[in-house]
Amino acid sequence: MTKLSPLQIERLKYQPKLPMSLQNGVNSLELVEGSATQSVRDQEQIKNLFANTYGKPTVTFKSTSSSSSSDVRNVGVILSGGQAPGGHNVIAGLYDSLKNANPANKLYGFLGGPSGIIEGKYVEFDDEFINAYRNTGGFDIIGSGRTKLETEEQFQKSLAVCKSLGISAVVIIGGDDSNTNAALLAEWFVKNNAGIQVIGCPKTIDGDLKNEQIEISFGFDTATKTYAELIGNIQRDANSAKKYWHFIKIMGRSASHVALEAALQTQPNITLISEEVEAKKMSLSSIIDYMTDIIVKRSNNGKSFGIAVVPEGLIEFIPEMGSMISNLNDIMASLESDSSFVSASASEKFSIVESKLSSENAKVYASLPALIKTQLLADRDPHGNVQVSKIETEKLLIEMISARLSQLKSEGKFSGKFSAQSHFFGYEGRCAFPSNFDADYCYSLGYNAFALINFGLTGYLSSVRNLTQPADEWIAGGIPLTMMMNMEKRHGEMKPVIQKALVRLDGPVFKRLQDNREDWAMNDRYLFPGAIQYFGPSSVCDITTTTLQLERSKTLASV
User: Fold this and answer.
1) Contact 108, 125 (CB under 8 A)
2) Within this chain, do residues 149 and 252 fall inside the same structural domain, yes or no?
């Protein structure tokens, strides 16, 4: 047996907190239906595509004094997509809930993500197996994967595997793409009278899977606290050495929630927000001007150091870069299978790409450093898009700022020093020990998922709300997956997908940054969050993100 660290030994003993409504088990629940729902956009198209699961009501649970019996159910669970702290607790909560309802119930874990249900690779959980993973980070309990569930063949194979195991419900733990797959699978099962329910759980450290009913996706709390600790450590170093500018790229491709939350926790000198860059149509040159201006002003004040936080997906939100990357994605679809292109040298590839891009996009591509041009040609993601996590935006900014400062120095407008360090915080946050908040929230999501199953629901996302209050005041329930969907272009075709929640520039979270930006730029208001605390007063250990607190305070104030 693997030796456990002292922290893991103590964390295994932690008993996650549940909403009051779930504390007596799912056999003592009453289901309360809300109003009928519709998709966030493209209602007619989504309704036609999900004719059997569209328009269902939101639901909540309340405890009752009576207790009912529960039929024997076998359930399968899938971890899908990138890792996020707390996934193990979702499974633990699901397991405890179904065993509490009926000890004869069984939980099967499909191995390696969605491919496990297609290929029939699984494990059956028991107490000993589950107990070894409670309150731990990672997805290693059964592994994860990015296989999509979207074809007739995949659905048929999934059905056959479920039938062979007597499975009558599947829980898919994942982000927006994974829960889109859950919606498609739920619709297919109903359409084909399969008798198998599908329930989703909201996971993504990026924080872009949320709405009024899903206040936060699990993992966001732990990941942002982990990144904030690292940024705080670097800020302390910068404030001690007083000689480096640190450029920190941080997770978040399609939305900047992680960068924004980490900035509010640490108060760096510069924070770029992709959604703001896009809304203001900021060019790469204007971004360099903005950052250079702060660097020069701080240098004139005797401060040749600072911290800049940059979201992972920034480069795609810069208008001329976004246009060029979109054009590049289209032409790379054919070039990747062109043997002459694949075997060409780097400089030859640059020339070929520039000859195929539109004239304006070719100019943008040609202006970039060779390192960035190479990274833009790397293998595409499953959607056929550039993998922005592999583009070292932080180094691009450093190189261009260095060039701008050299120019200013030659013009006698800058006499200071500029020395930069680059960092990328991504994997560091995905598998951390979940915070108390995520440990509780994830356990509740899993426990609640079986409640949805027990009431015969399908095509729903497990929802636990009122999260800024103590856990026993949380509200358990579910929302239809179709409620979060719209139509988007994927691989050249319009497809139904769960809509990503972007940073709202008119919202209270961004406004907190906006109101303090100038002060934080010139004055060192650094905060040092320190490591995640698991033991101690609730005011330290159970507190959630600044993002959620600001969003909920606005919501509650408007009620």
Assistant:
1) yes
2) no
Residues 338 and 255 in one domain: yes
* Residues 170, 265 share a domain: no
DSSP 472-521: GG-EEEEEEGGGGEEEEEETTEEEEEEPP-PPPTTSHHHHHHHHHHHHHH
Of the candidates 511, 514, 546, the one whose C-alpha atom is nearest the C-alpha of residue 527 is 546
pLDDT by residue for the chain (559 residues), tens only, comes to: 478 899 999 999 999 999 999 999 999 999 999 999 999 999 999 999 999 999 999 999 999 988 888 899 999 999 999 999 999 999 999 999 999 999 999 999 999 999 999 999 999 999 999 999 999 999 999 999 999 998 999 999 999 999 999 999 999 999 999 999 999 999 999 999 999 999 999 999 999 999 989 999 999 999 999 999 999 999 999 999 999 999 999 999 899 999 999 999 999 999 999 999 999 999 999 999 999 999 999 999 999 999 999 999 999 999 999 999 989 988 988 888 888 998 999 999 999 999 999 999 999 999 998 989 999 998 777 666 778 778 899 999 999 999 999 999 999 999 999 999 999 999 999 999 999 999 999 999 999 999 999 999 999 999 999 999 999 999 999 999 999 999 998 777 899 999 999 999 999 999 999 999 999 999 999 999 999 999 999 989 999 999 999 999 865 455 4
CATH of the domain at 248: 3.40.50.460
The domain in which residue 317 lies consists of 220-430+507-532
Same domain, 260 and 293: yes
Residues 24 and 109 in one domain: yes
Q: Is 421 helix (H, G, I), strand (E, B) or coil?
A: strand
Question: Is 19 a domain residue?
Answer: yes
Cα–Cα–Cα angle for 520, 521, 526, nearest 5°?
A: 40
Q: How many domains does the chain have?
A: 2
How do beta strands 493-498 and 485-490 pair? antiparallel
Q: Residue 465: beta bridge partners?
A: 475
State the pTM of this model: 0.94
Q: Is 449 within the bounds of a domain?
A: yes
Residue given tokens 């509780």 in the structure block:
440
Which residue in 243, 233, 247, 240 sits closest to 299, CA to CA?
243
Q: Which amino acid is at 10?
A: E
Tell me which residues are annotated as active site.
206
CA–CA dist 15, 419 (Å, integer): 48
My answer on whether 382 and 250 are in the same domain is yes
DSSP secondary structure code for residue 64 in this structure: -
My answer on whether 361 and 471 are in the same domain is: no
Burial 80-93 (b: 16+ CB within 10 A, else e): bbbbbbbbbbbbbb
